[in-house]
Amino acid sequence: MSPRTTRVVLAVGAPVLALLMAFVITSLVLLAAGDSVADVWAQILSVPSHRAIVNIINAATVYYLSAIAVAIGFRMNLFNIGVDGQYRVASFAAAVVAGEGWLPGYLNTLLAVVAAVLVGAMWAGIAGLLRVTRGVSEVISTIMLNAIATALVAYLLRKVAVDDGGNNTATKVVPEESRVPGIQLFGDVTVKVYGFVFLAALVGFVYWFVLSKTRFGFDLRATGRSETAAVASGISVKKMIVVSMLLSGGAAGLVGLPLLFGNDYSYGSTFQSGLGFAGIAIALLGRNHPIGIALGALLFAFLDEQSNSLQIVVGVSPDIVKITQGVIVLTVVIAYEVVRRYRVRLEQRQVAAALDEPATIEEAKA
Amino acid sequence: MSLVTAPRLAGKRRVTPGRVLLVVVALTVLLSLLRVLTGADDLASSGTLRATLVAAVPIGLAGLAGLWSERAGIVNIGLEGMMILGTFGAGYFGYFYGPWQGVLGAILFGALGGLIHAVATVTFGVDHIVSGVAINIIAAGAVQYLAALTFTGVRGGGQTQSPPIDALPAISIDALSDPLGELEAKNWFFVSDGAAVLRALVTNLSVLTLIAILLFVLTWFVLWRTSFGLRLRSVGESPASSESLGVNVIRYKFVAVLISGGIAGLAGGFLALVASSTFREGQTGGRGYIGLAAMIFGNWRPGGLLAGAGLFGYTDTLRLRGGGESIHGLLLLVAVLLVGLAVWQWRKAARTAAIVSGVMGVLVALWFLLSDSIPEDLTGMTPYVTTLLVLALASQRLRPPAAAGQTYRKGSAG
Question: Model's pTM, two decimal places?
Answer without folding.
Answer: 0.86
